[in-house]
Amino acid sequence: MKSNRILATSLLAPALLLFPGLALGQDGLNGANTSWILTSTALVLFMTLPGLSLFYAGLVRTKNVLSVLMQCFSIAVVISIVWLLVGYSIAFGPSESAWWGGLGKAFFSGVDAGAMSGDIPETVFAAFQMTFAIITPALIVGAFVERIKFSSMLAFTVLWALLVYFPVANWVWGGGWLGQMGLIDFAGGTVVHLTAGVAALVLALELGRRDGFLTSSVVPHNLTMSFTGAAMLWVGWFGFNAGSALAADNAAGMALYVTHTSAAAGALTWMVLDWFKFGKASGLGAITGMVAGLATITPAAGSVGPMGGLLLGLIGGVICYFVTIYMKQRLKIDDSLDVFPVHGIGGLTGTLLAAVLVSGGLGVFSGTGMPDGMTVGSQFMVQLIGVVAIGFYTGVLTWVIVKIVSMVMGLRVSAEEEQIGLDITEHDEKGYSM
Amino acid sequence: MKLIVAIIKPYKSDDVREAVSELGVSGMTLTEVKGFGRQKGHTELYRGAEYVIDFLPKVKLEIAVEDGLADQVVEAICKAAATGKIGDGKIFVSDLEQTIRIRTGETGNEAL
Prior knowledge:
heterodimer; A: mainly alpha; 15 helices; B: alpha+beta; 4-stranded antiparallel β-sheet; 2 helices
C-alpha cells in the first residue's frame, strides 16, 4: 500500500505544480482513497434508496407498497438529520469512554472542510458511515411491514438509532470496547446485520402476525420489483464491504471479490435447496439466498480469501435457509420479510466463522492470517463475546423502546386499517392507481 | 335472444374469439376474472410459507346472439376452449329480454 502511495504522489507531483490549488490545506490527503470512499458512500446509500426499498416493496401486497417505500425513505431522511446532530458523535466522537463517543462532535462540531480522518476528509468518512446508520434501521422495516403505525415507526427508528446503533457502532468501529478486544467485524456483521436482525425479531414478536399470515393469500405483489431491488443491493454491497477498507487498496479489492463470490454462492445454495425440497428453483429464494450470502460475508470480507468467501456463502446460505423455514413453518413468527433469519443469522454466522477463515493455514481456504497474538480459539471467543453482547444488548434495548413507543403512541394500526392497507390509512395515497 | 356467458382458460380466449367470429358473431365482452370450481386452487410457496391460492385466473366472455345462433355458438366455444383437462370452464346460457344499440336506438336482433 505504501509503495502505491509513493508512486501516486510522484505521478501527481507535476500536476500539483500546474495546479497548486489541488494540494491546498489537505496535508496527507490520499486522492485515490478519497474518491473510492466517495463512490462507496453513493453505493451504500443506493442500497437503501432505492435498492432495499424496492426489494421490500415488491414483497408486500399492493395496498401497502407505498407505505414500505415511504418507511425506507423517511428512515433515510430522519437518520440523516439525527446523524448530523448527535449520531456521528455518539458513534465516532472523541470520548475516551469505551462505551460511546460522547457529544464532542455533536452538530459536527470541528468537522470542517479541512478535517481529516486518516488520509480521507472527515466529511467523507462521516458521510460513508452515515449510509450504514441509514440502512440498518431500514433493514428492520422487513419485520413490521403492512401493520405498523407510521408515526410509531418514526419514533422507534430515532430511539433505536440513538440507543442501539450509534453506541454499538462505537463499540466495534469507534474505538470502543469490542474493537479494543479485537473483534473482527469488517463491514457490519454485528453492527448492521445482527442488530437489525435481533431488533426485527423483537418487533415481530411484539407486533404479532399480520392478519391472514399463513392462512390466506399474504403474498408478494411484484417480484419483478424485488429482483430489481435485490440486484441493486448486490452491486451496492461492493461499496458496503470494499468501501469498509476505507482505502482503495488490496484489502478493498479482496473484500469486493469475496463479497461477490459469497453472494453468488448464497443464491446458488437457495436455488438448489428449493429445487430439492419443493421441486422448483424459486426466484424469491434465489435473491433471498443472495442477501444471505452477502450478510454472511460482511463481517469477514476483510479477513478471508476467495475460497473462504465461497465457503461462507454456502454455509451462510444453508443455515439461513433452514432458519427461515423453521421460523415460518414451526414457530410461525411473522418476521414478515425474514430479517432475522437472513440478516441476523447471516451476520452472526459470518462473524463467528471469520475467526476460523481468517487463518493463514487452511491451504486454499486461507485468509489474511491470524491477528497478532491470536489463535483460532481465542479469536473465536472474542467473536462469540461480540455476538452475544451485541445480540443481548440489542434485544433488551429494542424491547424497552418498543414498550415505550407502544405505551405512548401505540404500535399497530387497527384491524380495519390493516384490512384497508397502510397506503390509504397512513398516507392517504395509493401506490397504484390503475 | 340469448346471453351466453363463458368462463374459460385465459389462454384460450383468442381461439374462442376466432371460432365464434366465423359464425358471424360481431361482438363480445371480455373480463379477466378469478374463481374456482372442481379444479380447486394451487399452492404457492414464498420462502417456506405455503399458500393455497383458491381463486384461479379465468376469462369471462359475454356474447349476446339471436336465438337461432345460440346452439352453434355454444358448440363452437366448447370446441375451442376445451383441453380435456380439469379447469376448462363453464358456459351459462340465459334468455335475453332486450338489446339496444346506444348510438342509433335500434333494438332487438337489429342491435346485436
